[in-house]
Amino acid sequence: MERILSSDVVKHAGKDVLVQGWLHKKRLLGGLNFLVIRDRAGLVQVVAEDEAEVEKLRGMQVGTVLTIEGQAFEEPRAPGGAEIRQPKITVDVSVTDESPIEIDKPLSHKPENLDTLFENRVIGLRNLQEQAIFKVQAAVEEAIRQYLFSQDFTEFNSPKLLPGATEGGAEVFKLDYFGKQATLAQSAQFYKQIMVGVFERVFEVNPTYRAEPSATTRHMTEFITVDVEMGFATFPELLNLLSNLINSAVAEVWKNSENQLKLWDAKQPVLKSEFPVLTMAEIHEKYSKATGTNTVGEKDLRPDEERWICDYAAKELGSEAVFVTEWPASEAKFYHKVDEQNPEFAERFDLLFRGVEIATGSMREHRYDVLIDQLAKKAGGQPEDDGFRYFLMAFKYGMPPHGGFGMGLERLVEKIIGLANIKEATLFPRDINRLAP
Amino acid sequence: MERILSSDVVKHAGKDVLVQGWLHKKRLLGGLNFLVIRDRAGLVQVVAEDEAEVEKLRGMQVGTVLTIEGQAFEEPRAPGGAEIRQPKITVDVSVTDESPIEIDKPLSHKPENLDTLFENRVIGLRNLQEQAIFKVQAAVEEAIRQYLFSQDFTEFNSPKLLPGATEGGAEVFKLDYFGKQATLAQSAQFYKQIMVGVFERVFEVNPTYRAEPSATTRHMTEFITVDVEMGFATFPELLNLLSNLINSAVAEVWKNSENQLKLWDAKQPVLKSEFPVLTMAEIHEKYSKATGTNTVGEKDLRPDEERWICDYAAKELGSEAVFVTEWPASEAKFYHKVDEQNPEFAERFDLLFRGVEIATGSMREHRYDVLIDQLAKKAGGQPEDDGFRYFLMAFKYGMPPHGGFGMGLERLVEKIIGLANIKEATLFPRDINRLAP
User: Fold this and answer.
1) Cβ contact (<8 Å) for B123 and A197?
2) Which of A172, A344, A379, B57 has its CA 20 to 30 A from that of B179?
C-alpha cells in the first residue's frame, strides 16, 4: 500500500490507509490505546485495541519510527479530524531512550530556559510549536523574494570571505586565508551597491557575521540579512519600497501560515500602507516629555526609546511599524549620503517594528569625488586598499543615485510571531557562548 | 515626465519619453550621432542631431549616467525595435575615465584572460554577456526553489560557523571564536540530516567553504551548494527527485531566460525524464575499452573519464546527464549507507552533466548503533565531540531512512550556459589566489 500523509487520512475515511512517521505521543490505557503519529504534514491519531499490536510498542519511546496500516475514520475530536483504527503496527526504527526535552507539549521560552532549549534543539525542533517558527521563517523569506521579484529586483550571491573589514570596527571575525588575512562579511553592503551598477535593483538573502562580544536578546554572531539596493531611487521611494515589502510579507504569511501563527497566538500587525515617519528629534522630544527621561540632543535612540515610540505609533498613528529619519550626519558611515538641504543629517532611516529596529537603510553617496572625501574623513580609509578600491571602481565608472537597506530576517520573524529573543527565531543560534549545535 | 524602461520605448512610439541609464556606447559621426543607453531592462538607441545637445557629451565616457527626454520611434534595426530622436540630454553623473574593460562587446573568457576579467569584475559585469550569466543563475536558483516547494520541501537556514570540521580533512578554514576555535562549514550535511527529523523534506541554498589549495577550473574556496535531504525515501526515489529537479530547472530557464541564453549560444541539454544510471565498474570498463587507458578496479572516476562517459551518454543513451552508482564502500563517508545486498558498495551516486560532476548524494545510515560504529571506524570520530554529538542525537531519538544530495549551483550554471571554468559562473570568485573584489 502507498504511504499517505497524516493530513490526508480524513479524505480516506472508510478505507485502508498506510501512514509513516514518528511516535509523537503514546497513551496506553489497557483496553484502548492512543498513539499520535507525526509526519511532515502534522499529526494523526491511532487507536489500538489488539494487544499483540500494542505489545510491539513496549519500551518504545517518542521518536520511534513507525509504519501504521489500518482503517481511516472521521473523528472530529482527533487532530486533522480523523483517526486510524485497528492498526497493524511496524516498528521501523526503535527508540528506547526517553527524549531529553518535551516533544508533544509547548517548550518553555523563559529566558532562564533558553539554554536548555538550544542545547536540545536537534530534538526540540520536532515539537510542533518550534517547527511553526521555522515554517513561518521560510514563508517570510519566500514572500520577501516574491515581492522583490515582482518589483524587478534580481537576486545575487556575493562572497562572505573578504580581504578586509569593510564596515570597520572591531566586531569582525578574522581567519587565515593561505597565509593572508581574510575577514567574514559583516554585510553585503559594498557588493549590493556594486550590483546596482549592473542590475539597478538587487537583493541577497545572506548570512552576516559580527564578532559581537556580548550576549543580548537582540544580537547574534551569525544571522540572515535581507540586503536590498535600488538604483535611480529617492529616499521616499526607499521608504515606500520597504513599507510595501513588509505589508506584502505580513499579508502572505497570515494567508499561508495561519495554523503556525495560531500556535503562538501571533497577532497580525496593524500597519499603514505607508509607515509613519518620525524624525529622531521628534522621538527624543516626545519620549522625554512622556517619560521624564531627557534624551533630547542624543545622537541615537535608546532601546527603551525604541520600545516606547513603537507603542506610541501603534496607539496614536495606527501603525506598529515606524520609520525614524534625520540621523546625525556626524554619526553616518562614509557611504551614507548627507542631506543636501540639511547637511547636519544623513539620508538614513531605521525601521522600528514592535519595539525593535528590524531594518536600517540610507541613500548612498553616489558621487565619486565626494565618496573618496567621505572615506578619508569618516573611515580613515585609503582608496587603494583592497577592501575599498573595487567598491570605489563602481563609482569612478558611473553610479546613479541609489539607496537600500538591510533587514534582519530573524528579527522580523521574532516580531511577527511575538517572541522575546532573536535566538528563539533562529534554528541554531550563535553567540559568544554558543557555537553548537 | 515619468521614467520608462528601455524595453518600453517601442510601446510609446510617437510619444515623448524619458529614459535614464548608463551611456553604453557612443558614436559621434558629426551630423548624426548615435548613443546607446543601458538600464535594467536592456539597451535603447538615441539619435542626436542637435549640436548643443551632443556637446554635453564631450569627454563623457561609457558609464556616464544620463537622463534622455525625446520622441520615441519604431526602428526595427535598433535594440528593442525602437529609438529616441531629438533628445534633450542631461548628464546626471559624469564619467571622464575610459573603462578599463569593454562594456559593449563580449569579453574574452580565454583561460589567460580570466584574471583580467575578475580583476575588473565590478565594471565588466555591466557587459550584457556577463549580466546574462547571473540572470541565468538567479533563474536557475528560483526554478530549483519552486520545484522543491512543489514537492513539499521546507527551506531552512543553518549556521556556517561550526565547532569542528564535520567532514574531516585538511581543507577547512579555521578562525578564532572568542578564544575558541571555530571552522567554516564545508557543507550543511549534518544540519540537513538533522532537519529531516523535523520537516522530513528540507533544502538550503547556502555558501560552502573549502580551503582548496589548488587553483583549478572546477574548484573554488567559496561556492553555493543546493543542499537537499529527503526522509522516508529510497535510493531510486532520490535519483528520481534529482532527475526531475534538473529537468524542471532546465525547462524553466529555457522558457524564461531565452534572451540571456542566446547571448552565449547555450544549447538546451538533451535529457531523459529519468537520467540513465551506470555503475562505476561499467564506466571503467567502457572507458578502458574505448580509450586503451585501463581504469578497471579504480575507486573513483578520473576527470577524463567523467568527460568521456558524458559524451558516451549523450551519444548512446540520449542524455547529457548520467548517474554513476556503486561507489566502493571502502571510500564512503561515515554517514553514507552501505548497500545491504552488496556490502562492498555504498548507496551513493554522483550526477555527471556535460563532463563534470554537478551533484553527489547518497542514502544515509539512519540506524544509531551502526552510525556510531561507522563514525569510529571511518572517521575516527568520538561520539561525544561537539562536532558529532548533536548530529548523533537526531539518530538516538529516531531517524527514518533518508538520503539527499548537494549540488553546486555555479557548476550547474556553468554547464547550462556552456562555460569552461566554474569561476566564470561566479559573481566574485574566490580561490587560493583571489580574495577580491
Assistant:
1) yes
2) A379
